[in-house]
């Protein structure tokens, strides 16, 4: 299994579709990437 993370860029059109409370504070940066504590669940059938 692979995970691929890309930074958010502040001038991309899809940011308009996200809730304002989940958008990062870009400040003077052009991009933002923050990976917090991920939750990994396993399906054990």
Give a brief outline of the structure.
This protein is 0% helix and 9% strand.
What features would you describe in this structure?
- There is one protein chain.
- The chain is low in regular secondary structure and 45 residues long.
- It contains no helices and two strands.
- Strands 1-2 form a two-stranded antiparallel ribbon.
- The radius of gyration is 14 Å and the shape is elongated.
- It starts with 7 loop residues before the first strand and ends in a 13-residue tail after the last strand.
List the helices and strands and how they pair.
Blueprint: E1 8-9, E2 31-32
Antiparallel strand pairs: 1-2
Brief descriptors of the model:
45 residues; little secondary structure; two-stranded antiparallel sheet
Annotation, overall tally of beta strands: 2
Structural class: little secondary structure
Q: Work out the oligomeric state of the chains in this entry.
A: single chain
**Helical stretch tally:** 0
Beta content: 5-15%
What topology, given as strand order, has the largest sheet? 1-2
The arrangement of helices and strands along the chain is EE
The unreliable regions are: none
Mean of all residue-level pLDDT scores? 80
How far from one another are the termini?
A: 18 Å
Shape: elongated
Over the alpha carbons, how many angstroms does the gyration radius reach?
14 Å
Q: Please summarize the sheet with the most strands.
A: 2 strands, antiparallel
Helical content stands at: under 10%
């Amino acid at each position: 299994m692979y995970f691929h993370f890309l930074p958010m860029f502040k001038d991309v059109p899809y940011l308009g579709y996200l809730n304002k409370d989940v958008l990062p504070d870009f400040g003077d940066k052009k991009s933002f990437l923050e990976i917090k504590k991920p939750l990994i669940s396993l399906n054990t059938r």
